[in-house]
Structure prediction request, 820 residues.
Amino acid sequence: MGDLEKILIVICDGLGDRPVDEFKGKTPLQMAKKPTLNRIAREGICGMMYPIDVGIRAGSDTSHLAILGYDPYKLYTGRGPFEAAGVGLEVKGGDVAFRCNFSTVDENFVVVDRRAGRIKDGTAALAKALDGMEIEGIKVLFKESIEHRAVLVLRGNGLSPYITDADPHAENQKVHEVKPLKAEAELTARVVNQFVKESYRILSEHPVNRERESKGLPPANIVLPRGAGIVPHIPKVGELHRIKGAAITGIALVKGVCRVAGLDIIEVKGATGGLDTDMMAKAEAVVKALETYDLVFVNIKAPDICGHDGNAGEKVKVIARIDKAMEYVLKNANQNFVLALTADHTTPVSVKDHTGDAVPLAIHGRGVRKDSVRTFDEIACAKGGMGHILGKNLLPFLLQLTARSEKFGS
Amino acid sequence: MGDLEKILIVICDGLGDRPVDEFKGKTPLQMAKKPTLNRIAREGICGMMYPIDVGIRAGSDTSHLAILGYDPYKLYTGRGPFEAAGVGLEVKGGDVAFRCNFSTVDENFVVVDRRAGRIKDGTAALAKALDGMEIEGIKVLFKESIEHRAVLVLRGNGLSPYITDADPHAENQKVHEVKPLKAEAELTARVVNQFVKESYRILSEHPVNRERESKGLPPANIVLPRGAGIVPHIPKVGELHRIKGAAITGIALVKGVCRVAGLDIIEVKGATGGLDTDMMAKAEAVVKALETYDLVFVNIKAPDICGHDGNAGEKVKVIARIDKAMEYVLKNANQNFVLALTADHTTPVSVKDHTGDAVPLAIHGRGVRKDSVRTFDEIACAKGGMGHILGKNLLPFLLQLTARSEKFGS
Prediction:
């Protein structure tokens, strides 16, 4: 399939918005200087997309799953598996995974600091001390993430994600005993309780914590798991559609979704997933990735951060930066490709969280029916030729546009 | 229901297209002279239709099933049943049916000519010699189709379509032994293998072949089945909706779908399903059929042929001919009717095969909400009042428009 067009999907995380008072009812997208995004809309076919379904408030994980062609209602049980895969643990179908905090407890297991003083250094050594143990025949994989965060993966027969959290989600409370929510989860609950106890036993004696205590810092003397989820047994995107795919994203959660979906993760120096992310470095990575991959999947987190912060002015600036990055990609890519420019959900600055509104969509490249949409925003795209689609519709549409689909029937 | 409006569904096969370079980015529909089609759009309500789902590349068979209200994912296992029904075999739910070639093999069962010299004459006599035999309690129905083509139907208990093809799909290869793909298909595989052997035994001695050989022509001395499919047990359209329906089409495959759906097939002299089809004869047949039927279903194959041929200029001409035929229908029909004008899939001349794009749709007749669409094409209809619908949505919409639906709830 060497000379088929490539597929580039650019997800501007949380890009969609609602009317903003300080913009006299316009959205950040309508306010932003974005000649390239407008060009993409003008030369392409536009529409609106409900990432999961009409009015459903999608998370970034569930939305990315849907956009990659999976049914999140069937395979999403929690964030754990995707966080774990995102920090680089090789998860397998059937594993049960957790997000964790390194925390500080007193001798009665009362939580003194849920984030262990937002510990930055030494967590790799702490994690290593916990990784690899076995409890009741269940293998324990453990790895540090950013700051006080970590991930736990349990591997073995008879695991279930239907358990309560050990993390009390508040300070001055005792560590919760994990309880099974279904009978099938009794083993898992026992293993997690045992792991939490072991983590206290091992970490409270660890040299990293001895040193912290000598400096007056709260020791990271326990691990508190939460958000159990089971890793789904799913076919990889590449196998399903016979394509070689890669993802570029600074966010562990999105990396995890893409890794579980079988995409290669391309690490980009300076792509932090924060407002300080180096968008041009990402754009360069996209241009390079298009040389070797059939599908390049990019997540740009910055608009979502502005949404959560309620910062409309910053969101406008971020959109202008995305525009520059897209200009670079269109100018410098040597391959023919079909581009889908959209978002994983709407994060309006007025709400500071994800909403169930549709997100704008523009598809650009050979073969698309150009419609009369002139600008890329939430109002103009609603009049586009694609109409309103769901997230799960996007990949099938792009696959047939690049001649990669089988015909159903004859 | 004597004074209810009739329903006329006109499927212009493969009508939808993509921007064409030689038309400076316009589609054949946008280029064609089509005052009547535009009038239908202008006076009606327009939209776009994904025959099966967004981005799914529909076949004509699966698409027609969907438009007639069935779920092709549930009942479509292969083309065989619809081809068999299309050439006039009375198929029944549970029958397993095949497309076949009359082929030429040598004495070692190596295929010398998959089409037996594209045999034209004598296949009816050859077919008759095979029709009606019984193998392991399974009844064999066999009928010739056009040229070297034929259809095979197996009837009896315990049949399954999950078998491999006898046809090696290439010359200089041995006839394949049919193998079951599931355990339940062992009987069917044995019966087909036996039928293939019997066909050789009977046909190689047949006078038609003796004569061919005397003329130096390759004998049609074997039958090679392929594309097994099970005939679905489905309620007829007429029973489901208490309507009397008829289909007008020159294509065996579409005839077959319509026959399985319980529509009467109206044969029209000169309606060939080719570019040479007599569209005015079809139009006259439509006018006549509207007198006696509640639902008239028409397929016009010609645009699809132009799409597969990559012939944009011819597609434009074909559209103008369809326009004339529709002008005749609108002028001469004495009955009130609601018209749905659409396609079963997009066959862009740039792709030469079916794609997963939406097709244009216009619904014309009493009760429809006129929108602002002025022309019938892929771009204009996307702004229409119907929005984007799926193929399965069309018949329910038309049934309620003509007051034929039950209310769901109160």
